[in-house]
């Protein structure tokens, strides 16, 4: 489990599938109201408090994004607690506010891997093309790393798993979402990155 602060009232938690399995949670369980998921959320909030001083009191917006290769990205945004004119919360309001949570669940079809070295990106691209898995992809530069993203909405599960196996050999699954990359990353190759890499770095 990896936690990072995105802003004063916002954190991102990255859970790998191994993190979920260790706790006896299947990917599909995240969509159900079960005690294990509540325990996991409590554990995440405890860790966020101890590592970042992020206090989860008050209304929370929780966005859970399931990604095919990476695991789960959980974005928690803390809302503002209403304070009465005397500077304190009303008793009734305090009880209500503490546990008010709005959860959004999404599933992403994007496979994203991060690479430290450009040579590793080239090697992964060559193997993906040689295996006949894909010639597509979008290549970004983000915080000193190379990130390649594939939209696999129309790709069959077997091909997805084979792509993940190749990418995992050279890089690491990343918790960065497409929205963050589009806003803060630099697009190096907007389309057909595998084909372009193989063409220019043969």
UniProtKB/TrEMBL annotation:
Cite the InterPro entries for this sequence. Answer: MecA_C_sf, Neg-reg_MecA
By sequence similarity, the record places it as follows: Belongs to the MecA family.
Under PANTHER family, the record lists: ADAPTER PROTEIN MECA, ADAPTER PROTEIN MECA 2
- Which protein is depicted? Genetic competence negative regulator
């Amino acid at each position: 489990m990896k936690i990072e602060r995105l802003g004063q009232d916002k954190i991102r938690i990255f859970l790998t599938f191994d993190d979920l399995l260790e706790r006896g949670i299947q990917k599909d369980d995240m969509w159900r109201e079960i005690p294990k998921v509540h325990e996991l959320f409590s554990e995440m909030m405890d860790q966020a408090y101890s590592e970042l001083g992020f206090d989860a009191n008050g209304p929370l917006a929780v966005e859970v994004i399931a990604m095919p290769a990476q695991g789960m990205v959980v974005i928690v945004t803390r809302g503002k607690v209403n304070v009465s004119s005397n500077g304190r919360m009303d008793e009734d309001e305090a009880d209500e506010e503490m546990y008010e949570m709005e959860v959004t669940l999404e599933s992403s079809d994007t496979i994203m891997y991060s690479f430290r070295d450009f040579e590793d990106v080239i090697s992964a691209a060559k193997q993906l093309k040689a295996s006949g898995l894909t010639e597509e992809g979008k290549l970004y530069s983000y915080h000193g790393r190379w990130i390649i993203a594939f939209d696999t909405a129309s790709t069959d599960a077997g091909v997805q798993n084979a792509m993940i196996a190749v990418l995992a050999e050279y890089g690491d699954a990343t918790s960065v979402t497409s929205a963050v990359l589009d806003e803060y990353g630099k697009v190096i190759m907007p389309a057909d990155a595998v084909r372009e890499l193989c063409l220019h770095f043969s």
